Amino acid sequence: MADEFAKGLAILTGGGLVWMAISSWLTTESFEGTQLIAAPPEDPGTYAELVLLLRDVTAGFVIIGVITFWFLIPAFYELRDYFDERSAEA
After folding, report:
1. How high is the pLDDT of residue 46?
2. Angle at the Cα of 31 from the Cα atoms of 26 and 36, rounded to 5 degrees
3. pLDDT tens digits for the chain (90 residues)?
4. Rounded to an integer, what distance in angstroms lies between the CA atom of residue 25 and that of residue 15?
5. How far is CA 88 from CA 13, 17, 23, in A?
6. Within 13 Å, how many C-alpha atoms sit on residue 13's CB side?
């Protein structure tokens, strides 16, 4: 189970770093104002739109990756072990 935790942590830190870097470049109004979660530019160029899309994809990847590696895969292993023990007893 330690390897699943490490994979989830790597997804969280790597994806979070990418998300924070993009957000700091494009959605930080000022150092005194809203940082990282401000509204994106009203008229971004083509590359800025692609980077904003990458930011959204990265956020989804982080959420799905962490849930998968920290909850779903360990739950699957536990269920598989439970059913193996149950079938061995019968």
Report:
1. 93
2. 40
3. 789 999 999 999 999 999 999 999 988 887 887 788 888 888 888 999 999 999 999 999 999 999 999 999 999 999 999 999 999 887
4. 16
5. 41, 46, 53
6. 5
Q: What are phi and psi of 39, to 5 degrees?
A: -65, 140
pLDDT at 63: 97
Q: CB-based contacts of 4: which residues, under 8 Å, 6+ apart?
A: 69, 70, 73, 74
Residue 55, pLDDT score: 94
Helix residue ranges, H only, the chain: 2-26, 46-67, 73-89
Give the CA-trace dihedral at 10, 11, 16, 22, to 10 degrees.
120
Residue 10 is encoded by which pair of tokens?
A: 């790597």
Cβ contact 27:37 at 8 Å: yes
The two structure tokens encoding residue 19: 């998300």
* Tokens 């990847």 -> residue: 61
